[in-house]
Amino acid sequence: VSTATGEPLSRVDGIAKVTGAATYAAEFARPDLAHGVIIQSTIAKGRITEIDSSAAERAPGVLAVITHRNAPELPYQKQHPTPPVDPEVGVQLPMLHDALIRHNGQHIGVVIAETFEQATYAADLVRVAYAEEPAATSVEASLPHASPVTEATRAAAPRPPTGAASPTGRSRRRRSRSTRPTSSRARTTTRSSSTPRSPSGTATG
Amino acid sequence: MQPFDYVAVSSPDAAIQGAAGRDGAAFIAGGTDLMQLMKEGAAAPRRLVDINALPCTEISVGPEGLRLGALARMSDVADDPAVRKRFPVIAEALLASASAQVRNMASIGGNLLQRTRCTYFRDPAMPCNKRAPGTGCSALEGDNRLHAIFGGSEHCVATHPSDVAVALVALDAVVEVQGPAGARRIPIRDFHRLPGDAPERDTVLEPGELIVAVEVPASAAACCSHYLKLRDRASFEFALVSVAAGLDVDDGAIQEARLAAGGVGTKPWRLRTAEEVLLGRPATAETYQAAAERAIEGARPLALNAFKVELLRRAVLRALATVGDMA
């Protein structure tokens, strides 16, 4: 008779986790480890007209600032058979592939540096200008324009190359500071079209 | 996060000196709010003056009232038997705040100085007059469900997030401050500012001024008091509406009444006209109803937060019924 049931068992990593001694994936030190911090769009729809990463590139410890302008293009390789996780509808969304902004918070760049703190600081120094377009943020308001996805529309959708290699090491998100676009409607449309991030971290009250 | 320098001090004088004349110096105690603000890019102090070693941790209750050192931790104050007995509204407000881990770190002084939870304030990509004066208020036309129905201006409608400050405002606490120009005592009702046309200033503190203690006068209503907090989830969440209530009832008649609300004002909101309704009246449901009606007078809801008006009315009613049963 097995004694594996009906008896309390200690998790092998239980003590490490409740005492805070367990190591997160990002806490493993490896030789020559670089750290990446992601830059995110601050608008919901439009295109990037300019990225000024010169200050970030000069910042201490920075190894690279990768955006759509310099990201390596990777060919999309169709998998056979189609993996079951592929959705029935929609298209692949390549990262750092073009200047188009498709949603608020879209990843538009990544800063690689020798330390996480250096990458975080440098990501703050990247300035992005956008040509903003009105975004659809209401399902109800968009319903009149909706149409069912068919074989025909799916076949017509482009299959762009898939995403660039992601850097190893810790990464976190950083929303880019936008330089003020020259277009006068820029901020008002941003306000109505982009939802603020939900609060994160600790709460005091 | 911007690079900054760091100095640890062990006396109020050294702290004030460490910050004096330096643009962008900030005191840091528990760091439960400031570290978040720095990581999010909503604050970028050039220098942090660490005051955790200051000998300002006392929690003492005497005949005159309660004295809390600025560095008393929220958890220690909430657990103090004399505070729980004679100032239950303070203990309850503290225990309704944050999480056990945060309360173990967060100080009483820091709690009063925490910044608003307005999501636009905490997102450097968005216009916000409180974070970046002159850029505009995103909440006026934006997602303002959590914003203020009292005390807002055309420049800012962000609420003050503290729970315990609501209890302290109800009990007429005094904030003891030291600074380059000496010491002063500020009634807590005057400590937080209305946003007006300068929402970047949350309090009347001058640069380099340091909170050293908070004093709360003893009162019969403080002994018979309660904090009611209503929120979107039952723990680790800020108030949609909260009410600090205290009553002293003698022979069925209300002798003293304390009422303040959180989650509804751009500063902790004392409900004085509602208190006036209670004074001298019998401690009955009809009286509480009349006070609750008065509590919502003058509310100016925004597009998405009209629910707070009715929620406040009912919260006042329930908090008064609770303390009325205790009295």
Q: How would you sum up the major sheet of chain A?
A: 4 strands, mixed
Percentage of residues in DSSP E strands of chain A? 15-25%
Q: Describe the global form of chain A.
A: extended
Q: Tally the beta strands of chain A.
A: 8
Say how many strands of chain B there are: 12
- Chain-averaged pLDDT of chain B: 97
Over the alpha carbons, how many angstroms does the gyration radius of chain B reach? 19 Å
Mean pLDDT of chain A: 76
- Unreliable sequence segments of chain B: none
Largest interface (C-beta under 8 Å): A-B, 25 and 38 residues
Helix content of chain A: 10-25%
Q: Which descriptor suits the 3D outline of chain B? A: globular
Structural class of chain B: alpha+beta
- What is the count of helical runs of chain A? 6
* Strand line-up in the sheet with most strands of chain B: 4-5-8-6-7
Largest beta-sheet characterization of chain B? 5 strands, antiparallel
Quaternary form = heterodimer
- Termini separation of chain B comes to 51 Å
